[in-house]
Design a protein that fits this description.
The structure is a single chain. By secondary structure, the protein is α+β, with helices and mostly antiparallel strands. Strands 1, 2, 3, 4, 5, 6 and 7 form a 7-stranded mixed beta sheet that branches. Helix 1 crosses helix 2, helix 3 runs antiparallel to helix 4 and helix 3 runs parallel beside helix 5. The model has no long low-confidence stretch (mean pLDDT 95).
Length: 272
């Protein structure tokens, strides 16, 4: 059997809830839409476009780009799932109200990002060709397990140190910094230096969190985690973990532990 590549998203989902991993990655169950996905995607699109053009675009053009991209993504999901009662929302609000609110809030976050970036003394790091390090693709070989992904930004602080930065439009920081830890190793392979620090830009606050020490994310530890993930998936070990996370799980309807439609996607013994 051809070994599939792994990703940080797979590792995070599998460690949080194996049943969610099975439904999303193996069974390919249809997930419920949510406007927060499109808010995040449109924000990333605009931030990348603005930075890639060396911040030369006018703020109004960037806000228009956000609204156009947000509307496009929402329309595509509306076509896939026209029943708005099936959409997930942030809080006890109707989907149509949540969509309208996030359209406005995302545009505010775009403006906040530009204001922050122009005032900050750091910047997106540029490679030897002078190109800004944005959406950096990597393929990391961890003793036979290939991990692929994209790094939002490599950020250069005023001290001259460079490290990975991930852009977040949600309200919570990840419980585990493994995302930045994996990016640390990918940067070493791509550019020949091993960052000590990485951070998250939190769009809800229009600023980054303080940098995190990433030195505990050694290649040996990260390699073991991904081999455990790979072995667990191949063995068909997908344990459910019901809890608070079920509310924001797009495939919870099909969950073998709590789903009302679990029979539509019954557990299977191993990855196919």
């Amino acid at each position: 059997m051809t070994v599939k590549h792994r990703s940080v998203s797979q590792l995070s989902t599998f460690s949080k809830c194996g049943e969610q991993y099975r439904l999303e990655k193996v069974a390919r169950a249809p997930g419920r839409p949510a406007a927060w996905f499109h808010q995040g995607t449109a924000f990333h699109t605009v931030a990348e476009a603005w930075e890639r053009n060396y911040r030369q675009d006018f703020p109004g053009d960037m806000l228009d780009l956000y609204e156009t991209e947000f509307d496009r993504l929402v329309a595509a999901d509306m076509e896939r799932e026209p029943n708005l009662a099936r959409w997930m929302t942030g809080g006890r609000v109707k989907a149509e109200d949540d969509i309208a609110r996030r359209r406005v809030r995302g545009a505010e976050q775009v403006q906040g990002y530009m204001d922050y970036a122009l005032a900050d003394s750091g910047r997106v790091w540029r490679d030897k060709d002078g190109l800004p390090a944005l959406e950096v693709e990597f393929r990391l070989d961890l003793d036979g397990v290939e991990v692929v992904g994209f790094i939002d930004q490599l950020w250069e602080w005023p001290t001259g140190q460079v490290g990975p930065r991930d852009l977040k439009t949600g309200s919570k920081l990840p419980d585990w910094l493994v995302q930045l830890g994996v990016y640390r190793l990918a940067i070493e392979d791509l550019y020949g230096f091993l960052p000590m620090w990485g951070d998250y830009y939190m769009a809800k606050n229009n600023r980054p969190e303080k940098p995190y020490d990433l030195t505990t994310f050694t290649r040996e530890r990260v390699t073991r985690w991904f081999h455990d993930l790979d072995n667990g998936v191949k063995a068909g070990v997908f344990l459910p973990n019901p809890g608070d996370g079920c509310r924001t799980c797009g495939v919870s309807d099909f969950c073998s532990a709590v789903g009302s439609r679990a029979d539509e996607y019954p557990p299977i013994p191993k990855e196919v």
